[in-house]
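WARN no homologs supplied; continuing
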Amino acid sequence: MHASSTRAASKPRPTAAQSALARLGFLLLASLLAACAHQPAETSREAGGWADAGQLVLVTSADWNATSAELRRFDRVDGRWVQVGDAAPVLLGRSGSAWGVGLSRARTDGPAKREGDGRAPAGVFAIGTAFGYASRVQTGLAYQAMTANDWCIDVPDSAYYNRIVDRSVVKAPLLDQSSEPMRRDIHADGDQRYREGFVIEHNVDGRVRRGGSCIFAHLWKDPQTATAGCTAMAPDSMDALLAWLDKRRHPVFVLLPLPQYLALKSDWNLPEIAR
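OK structure emitted
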């Protein structure tokens, strides 16, 4: 081979600037691959409706007719759900549960929640205002101290259906027909069930007429008595839950029978639970 051919075949050595750019490109690629390896599962279009939730309250029951269930709390850490504390027993509606109206889309693979059916709404819901008999409680939620004039309106024909109103201020037909005083200790023989609780934002502003109203998490009467459609628990469980919840983290409440939980867990980006 001629000397001129040898010189033509040899590759020019990269400059210092080119070597630096190559190293930078390699480092950027390695960082991108590492980040992708730690990304959570892709968020489905439906689960995008609660993708900003940093806290999740998960309630699972055996089936649609079960009146007892388990409640678990989860923090979102680096895109993944991490359980906080142990599971706690809770009670559901006297007839079990049924699909409600919340952040998740309407479904037909089970019963639908209706006013007075004694079922707790299933699905994904925003968590609203905390309430109680005391002037204040330890919680990161907005809190409203209830008075003798505060009632939740469960009359479907009322313009205030599924709203908590002060009946000393709001004057409208049908308010006197409501059966939901928020101070049950005053109006229901000392009942303590609403002493602490929070609103589960089901059927907000009664947009589905007769779709169910006044859905809360609250204290239970006792460990055996189911509710009219709410989720009830022991005082210690409620205290821990209220102290942990923080409105700045956009908490959501999820209630599902176990078969529906297993079917939707991946699509809704729900956490794993021990069974």
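The chain has one domain: 47-264.
OK
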